[in-house]
Amino acid sequence: MKRNEFINLCQNYSPYQGNKGHSSLTHKILAEVSSYHDSQTEKLPVIWLETNCSCDNNISIMNTTYPYLDRFLEETIDLLYSNTFMAAQGQDAVNNLKAAANKKAGQFTLVVEGAIPLQEEYNVVFITSQGEVSALEAVKWLGGLAKYVVALGTCASFGGPSAARPNLSQSVAVSEVLDREVINVSGCPVNADWFVGTLAHLLMYGRPELDNRNRPTLFYGYTIHRHCQRRSYFDNGNFAENLGEIECMFSQGCVGPKTRADCPYRKWINVNWPVEANTPCIGCTNPDFPDGSTPFFTPLSENSNE
Amino acid sequence: MSQTINFSPVTRLSGLLSVKVVIDDGWIKEANAKGTMFRGYEKIMQGRKVTDAVYLTQRVCGICSLAHGAVGSYLLDELYGSTLSQRAQYLRNIMLVADFLQNHIRHFYFFSLPDFVEFPNRPPWQNQNLVDGRLKPKDNQRLVGHYFDAVKVAQEAHEILALFGGKAPHQHSFVQGGVAVAPTADKINRAQALLANILQFIREKLIPDTELLAQVYNDYFKIGVTPKRLISCGLFKFGEQNQDDFWPRGVINGRQFAQPDVDKIEETVANSWFEEEDGQLEPAPDKPGAYSWTKSV
After folding, report:
1. CB–CB contact A87 B155 (8 Å)
2. Which of A38, A115, A136, B206 is the one with CA 20 to 30 A from A8?
3. Residue A19 has pLDDT above 80, yes or no
């Protein structure tokens, strides 16, 4: 309905025509508003593949608030395939995946949760009558059809714990097996806001601005250190002697100075974050996590990995 | 006539699973549960400082994260001869319980319920292959509603964990020697309010829903019945040296009760893709007869 038509409609149903006119105006407008709302409810079609990961990212995403998970699934994304959430199992689940990949080719967002083992027999996502489908095959197939590819969590973004030494499965980041742009939303696990916010950005404004590690600058633009509430302790050389104390955690192995994430003000589940809990940031969003952060509790300046 | 069925993927779990079933003359001859993911966590843990254990082992699994971290902490407490304050004992168990609550609520509603309840035919529940739906429409509708209610209470359980643990999953403050966060009045008060919501949900929804399914599907109790041999290795440790179990350990064998003999529990790799070399387990994806990356005990 055009603006003029809408104004005419309102004028024709003026309340001055009596009580009946008043309620019929509401009735008319509600129908219009409802049809407008329906036309605006396009959601982001998502195919979510789980590979070498602990599935902690999807658990973390279940902790999303405003929107809560149900609203996120209902209003932001159309989750066409997800090992964790879908009701279908077996061949029916595989059929869902094939149907989604065909019907939504060029439109869907591929979310990969986990690293990709180059030793293909070390991760099989499902088995059909035609044989096993490895994580590598599935990611290459779907990655070629997707509009956007989102690497969810540090394993998918950079290898993460799944690729920690000695990395027997030869796990690598999603970006290393795909010849296209991959948006990395790292974290071990990801903070629900980083993932929900990235998908909301894709839906509302398209591709977000990315940093030199292909992460949305919206969440990974600055270091933990820059925004840390305990920065003044660091600047004054006031370091904690133990975990559990209120001073700077650098002495306890905090890698906040080299870690890009917004935990100090984003927080986890709205209530806390590792440094506020009197423990060090272990740099779980970093490309070198965990091997570049271990041994934990060892100051960055003394860590042999640095 | 022998027939092989690959039921894959088994969905709604943490990890990747397929089941291969061999049917012969209407009888199941073989049923192989295949864990199809290998990361090699045992190897990842080797050659690191012991104090890496708590944070790193939590990354084994997202839904039961703290269970791994807690065991790491207990072992380090023993290694360092730590004496745990009463406050640390309580706080640790509050965090562990909060993770359990989150896990159980999500397991029941998100992972199990779609096997019994018909869901709306829209993503992510489209083309649900419910083979034995029995609930009356009214009950079905109520349980679907409770799935959505569970979203918030499971989040609230993890909020309790984050409140004292810094984040969830993979909390930070339940570590060797105790707990890094103090139980201040504001935190206790907030945790109690969150817990009150969770308890209300459990009493008014989770328990009645469990009872309803147990009643409607009561014939399921007779499927695959095994001898009544049950084991508990104890849960929720208290005491200055973690020496007491809030839920006691024990073995029930028929009418007999005994203490578990942990030395008799063995990890085996008979059907797993592992082979022993120089006392170490090495991955062996081509091992004949093996079918899974998971081990058995």
Report:
1. no
2. A38
3. no
Nearest CA-CA distance, residue A215 and chain B, Å:
21
| Total domain count, chain B | 1
Check: CB of residue A158 under 8 Å from CB of residue A143: no
Collect all residues with Cβ–Cβ distance below 8 Å to A25 and sequence separation of at least 6.
A9, A10, A13, A14, A15
What's A265's domain CATH number?
4.10.480.10
Chain A CA closest to residue B38: A122
Q: Report if residue B1 sits inside a domain.
A: no
- Farthest CA pair distance, chain A: 83
End residue of a domain, out of A169, A196, A220: A220
Q: Tokens in use for B284?
A: 């062996």
Domain count, chain A: 2
In a domain, A175, yes or no: yes
Q: Which residues of A touch B49 (CB under 8 A)?
A: 294-296, 298
β-pairing, A44-50 vs A77-82, is parallel
Identify which of A128, A162, A296 has the shortest CB distance to residue B51: A296
> Could you report the per-residue pLDDT of A235-256, keeping only the tens digit for each?
999 999 999 999 999 999 999 9
Burial A190-216 (b: 16+ CB within 10 A, else e): bbbbbbbbbbbbbeeeeebebeeebbb
A52 phi, psi to nearest 5 deg: -80, 95
Q: Please check whether residue B170 touches A, CB under 8 A.
A: yes
> What DSSP element (H or E) covers B29?
strand B27-35
- Residue by residue, DSSP assigns B222-253 as GTT---SEEEE--EEEESTTS-EEEE--EEEE
Partners of B196 in the β-ladder: none
CB contact at 8 A, A274 and B166: yes
Of the candidates B91, B63, B104, the residue with the CA atom closest to the CA atom of residue B201? B104
Is A92 close to B129, i.e. CB distance below 8 A?
yes
Residue numbers in A near B63 (CB within 8 A): 55-56, 59
The reply to whether A281 sits in an annotated binding site is yes
Q: What is the pLDDT of residues A62-71, one digit of tens each?
A: 999 999 999 9
Instruction: Please indicate, yes or no, whether residues A192 and A94 belong to a single structural domain of this protein.
Output: yes
Longest dimension (CA), chain B: 69
The alpha carbon dihedral of B52, B68, B191, B78 has a sign of negative
Predicted ipTM > 0.90: yes
Question: How many whole angstroms separate alpha carbon A8 and alpha carbon B16?
Answer: 59
A230 and A108 within one domain: no
Q: Is A125's CB within 8 Å of B16's CB? A: yes
Chain B residues with beta carbon closer than 8 angstroms to that of A87 = 11-12, 114, 119, 124-130
Residues in CB range of B243: below 8 A, 6 or more apart: B237
Beta bridge partners of B23: B3, B28
Nearest to A126 among B9, B51, B119 (CB): B9
Phi, psi of A80 (to 5 degrees): -80, -25
User: Which structural domain range is residue A258 located in?
Assistant: 222-306
| Percent of all residues in chain B with a pLDDT value above 70, rounded to a whole number | 100
Does residue A18 carry a pLDDT above 60?
no
Contacts of B165 in chain A (CB under 8 A): 272, 277
| Chain B CB contacts of A59 below 8 Å | 14, 62-63, 65, 106, 169
